[in-house]
């Protein structure tokens, strides 16, 4: 490997002929060279190499982006670990889809202009001073050739769409974007679109990453076409290094530092897959964070945001470990097995793919359940409040003398899985994953939907006239899922859990039937039960037939004799 020449992508870095390069860290060594300016200028061989091409991609992986920029494996790993900072068009590497359910199509224009190389045969005989410069430094290679040109990337993105529409939309976008070169006629823009294509173009935006500065960056399809038409002129005037040829200094001086090893292809693929997987978790989180119910309930939003941050912290820690170990492995001072262990350990950590996917699945289900319930109970007279404090603020208002609230009782900010992830990052790297994410069972889901339907029905009864209605999230571990709370002058007077068994006939306003009632005040029996239920505090359930009459189950003690935290079913 010490005697092998290398070809690397410039990635916006300012390479010049004769410059030193440290292949161990994949960094330029500025300010050091073996030859003066005149010697270099006298021994440069230049040839023109005018080419241009374009390609289209719908992939957003590190592998596909690296391929478009002709980045070889070792340099790609240096970029992923943070050893290499990119500029110009290579900033495209850092751009990723915001949402999983988002269509993205990338149009790349690439052009080359000329190739310059050093006549090494004429300048390879070094004196002692030049050899000493090599020995004292950290550089492993010298730049002997540079291909000039430019890259330009037009990245077209839709907003978040339905999952089933992503591929179909990408196909339509690709067909339209493929026409961009045909709209450029001798440097003049001539855009003719069908009505369908015009409507499609309105659905996506554009971002530009290039090796030159445009007067204004395009943000729409038409602006992208106009910018594309001017690229050939810009490339001729502003060409930059695209590809660089490096010769090992070991050829000039046997005592020069050298690149001994590199990461195996298998480990590189594993590292790339892990880092890409963590990015996908981030975009998957974004899909849920845009849902309105997540905005309405901080318990959902905070959990997703915390999960996203922890995944980002973990990814950063992995990158730091790669950046630390990679140079030692390349120098032959350390075996790659130590780095492989870092990524193998992920499988038994809270950050394993299975654990992260399980958490996201449970959280997405939770969001969907909340959304389903809110859709059932929503109405212009129903107000969503974030928490108990905001609910009390509304309940204490004079106009809220009588109020009912649909309460999500299991939306907790505390999350043992997220705590396990944090503890792991804090240093507890060994041990198995013990925490399990909260999962709303099918039974609880069914009862929550029933409760939501019952809450909606309550609003139609004449006894409910003048009531204020709210939706809130207040933890109640005794009654997981959802409940309906009734308030009088801001004071909780009863809680109904899993009300109304489903029947064929509609409910009569005088025959309300509750599965579980938690009474809190004796003075409100007539308010809660209605005129047909009485005010004795009896529990009712649906009869087996289709009739509407309520069936008394047992006689209860007077409400003032009942402990405030005891429910009917406990008696």
TrEMBL record:
Residues 551-563 have a biased composition (Low complexity). Residues 273-368 form the Stonustoxin-like helical domain. Residues 381-495 form the SNTX thioredoxin-like domain. InterPro entries: Cytolytic_pore-forming_toxin, SNTX_MACPF/CDC-like_dom, Stonustoxin-like_helical, Thioredoxin_11. Residues 539-571 are annotated as: Disordered. This is Uncharacterized protein. Residues 8-218 form the SNTX MACPF/CDC-like domain. It comes from Stegastes partitus (bicolor damselfish).
């Amino acid at each position: 490997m010490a005697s092998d020449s290398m070809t690397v992508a410039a990635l916006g870095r300012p390479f010049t002929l004769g410059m030193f390069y440290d292949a161990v860290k994949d960094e330029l060594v500025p300010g050091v060279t073996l030859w003066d300016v005149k010697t270099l200028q006298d021994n440069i061989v230049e040839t023109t190499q005018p080419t241009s091409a374009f390609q289209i991609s719908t992939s957003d992986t590190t592998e596909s982006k690296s391929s478009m920029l002709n980045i070889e494996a070792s340099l790609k790993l240096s970029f992923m670990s943070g050893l290499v900072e990119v500029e110009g068009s290579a900033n495209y590497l850092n751009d990723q889809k915001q949402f999983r359910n988002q269509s993205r199509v990338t149009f790349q224009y690439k052009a080359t202009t000329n190739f310059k190389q050093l006549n090494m045969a004429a300048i390879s005989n070094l004196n002692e001073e030049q050899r000493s410069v090599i020995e004292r430094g950290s550089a492993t290679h010298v730049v002997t050739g540079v291909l000039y040109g430019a890259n330009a990337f037009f990245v077209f993105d839709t907003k978040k769409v339905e999952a089933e529409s992503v591929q179909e939309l990408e196909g339509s976008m690709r067909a339209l974007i493929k026409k961009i070169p045909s709209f450029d006629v001798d440097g003049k823009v001539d855009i003719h679109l069908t009505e369908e294509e015009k409507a499609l173009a309105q659905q996506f935006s554009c971002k530009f990453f290039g090796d030159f500065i445009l007067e204004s960056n395009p943000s729409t399809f038409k602006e992208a076409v106009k910018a594309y038409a001017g690229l050939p002129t810009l490339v001729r005037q502003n060409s930059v290094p695209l590809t660089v040829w490096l010769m090992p200094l070991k050829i000039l001086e046997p005592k020069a530092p050298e690149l001994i090893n590199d990461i195996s292809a298998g480990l590189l693929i594993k590292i790339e897959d892990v880092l890409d997987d963590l990015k996908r978790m981030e975009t998957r989180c974004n899909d849920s964070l845009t849902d309105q119910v997540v905005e309405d309930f901080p318990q959902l939003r905070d959990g997703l945001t915390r999960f996203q941050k922890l995944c980002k912290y973990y990814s950063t820690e992995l990158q730091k470990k790669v950046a630390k170990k990679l140079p030692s492995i390349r120098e032959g001072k350390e075996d790659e097995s130590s780095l492989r262990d870092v990524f193998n350990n992920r499988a038994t950590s809270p950050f394993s793919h299975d654990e992260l996917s399980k958490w996201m699945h449970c959280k997405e289900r939770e969001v969907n359940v909340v959304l389903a319930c809110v859709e059932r109970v929503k109405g212009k007279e129903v107000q969503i409040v974030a928490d108990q404090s905001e609910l009390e603020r509304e309940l204490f208002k004079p106009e809220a003398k009588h109020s009912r609230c649909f309460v999500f009782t299991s939306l907790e900010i505390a999350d043992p899985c997220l705590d396990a992830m944090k503890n792991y990052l804090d240093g507890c790297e060994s041990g198995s994953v013990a925490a399990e994410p909260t999962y709303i069972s099918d039974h609880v889901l069914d009862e929550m939907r029933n409760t939501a339907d019952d809450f909606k029905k309550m609003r139609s009864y004449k006894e409910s006239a003048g009531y204020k209605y709210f939706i809130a999230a207040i933890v109640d571990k005794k009654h997981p899922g959802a409940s309906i709370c009734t308030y009088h002058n801001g004071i909780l007077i009863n809680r109904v859990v899993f009300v109304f068994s489903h029947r064929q006939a509609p409910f009569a306003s005088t025959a309300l039937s509750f599965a579980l009632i938690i009474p809190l005040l004796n003075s409100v029996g007539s308010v809660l039960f209605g005129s047909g239920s009485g005010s004795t505090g009896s529990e009712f359930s649906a009869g087996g037939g289709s009739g509407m009459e309520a069936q008394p189950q047992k006689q209860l003690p007077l409400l003032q004799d009942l402990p405030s935290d005891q429910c009917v079913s406990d008696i």
